[in-house]
Write a structure and sequence with these properties.
The protein has about 80 residues and is of the alpha+beta class. It is about 25% helix and about 50% strand. It contains two helices and four strands, in the order E-E-H-E-E-H. A hairpin with a 2-residue loop joins strand 1 and strand 2. The radius of gyration is 16 Å and the shape is elongated.
């Protein structure tokens, strides 16, 4: 199990960045989430930090990542829908 507690979106000189405070039930769940995010076409170089246990024993951490603009482009989605005569 994995959940976000807080999610922020900002724009930096290199483009948009997301930062999230999150928690997982176990270190294995955190490792699985790291693998999923690392393979995502929407994120570039996800960074996990601040890993520790909270008061109920869940693994809390921060993830930050640049957003791959090419993958979230409306233009790309519209071009895929365009019918060529």
């Amino acid at each position: 199990k994995f959940k976000f507690n807080e999610l922020t979106y900002s724009s930096k000189s290199g483009g948009p960045v997301i930062t999230a405070q999150a928690e997982a039930q176990t270190y294995n769940a955190l490792a699985q989430q790291h693998e999923i995010f690392s393979k995502s076409e929407y994120l570039k170089n996800p960074n996990f930090s601040g890993i520790s246990l909270n008061e109920v024993g869940n693994v809390k951490f921060t993830i930050s990542s640049a957003v791959n603009l090419g993958a979230v482009s409306y233009k790309k989605a519209l071009e895929a829908l365009t019918i060529n005569p």
